[in-house]
Write a structure and sequence with these properties.
One of its GO terms (molecular function) is monoatomic cation transmembrane transporter activity. The chain has 228 residues and is of the alpha/beta class. It has two domains: 115 residues, Rossmann fold (3-Layer(aba) Sandwich); 105 residues, Regulator of K+ conductance, C-terminal domain (Alpha-Beta Plaits). Helices cover 34% and strands 31% of the residues. It has a six-stranded parallel beta sheet, with helices on both faces. Helix 1 links the parallel strand 1 and strand 2. The chain is elongated.
Length: 228
Amino acid sequence: MKYIVLGLGHFGRSLAIRLTEMGHEVIGVDVKLTLVEQFKDQITHTVCLDTTDRESVRSLPLKDSDAVIVGIGEDGGASILTTALLKQLQVKRIIGRVISDLQKTVLEAMDIAEYVMPEEEAATRLAMRLDNIDIVDSFQVSDKYSIIETKVPAKYVGLSLQEANLTNIYKVIVLTTLRDQVGSALGQNRLKREATGIAKSDTILQEGDVLVLFGEMADIMRLIRKGE
């Protein structure tokens, strides 16, 4: 797929580099030539231009892109102007970046349905980990449901998922388990956490495994507390 990422600050360049590594064609854009030059070997294409200038933005292959992501964070005015310009140019899929409640209100007024709040999302995930050391990571799917990574409670080590019966007891679904695997990187053997595949009834829970759970937060926390 083809993506355009506008703004190569910490968020924008991380996204552009990751999408490139995943095999997508990415155009990374920034007004600062130093950033464009710095990441030209890590992103499919990099372009130096002012994203608030209509003619400059029109020179990008907007119609051929599957999505245009506004990654500008430091300059809220430039982010809003860029998003408004993309809307005027009838870009089919715009993903905005929100760093304030006011900016969120403006994007919603422009009928931008998709936006990300990386700082707030990162803070929420960290808060979850700090609040409970057994939570490895978290992702809020909706107001009601979350996906949580948590260590396998000691009482379930050695049991199959069928024997543990977590779905019936706690009303949560085990999506998969994560396990440390030995991999090679730069000539050295390192541990890398990888998914073991879709969880099945005969999946055996091992010490050190991480459960990837889907459900309501209250039910997941009940599992964590009673599983100790």
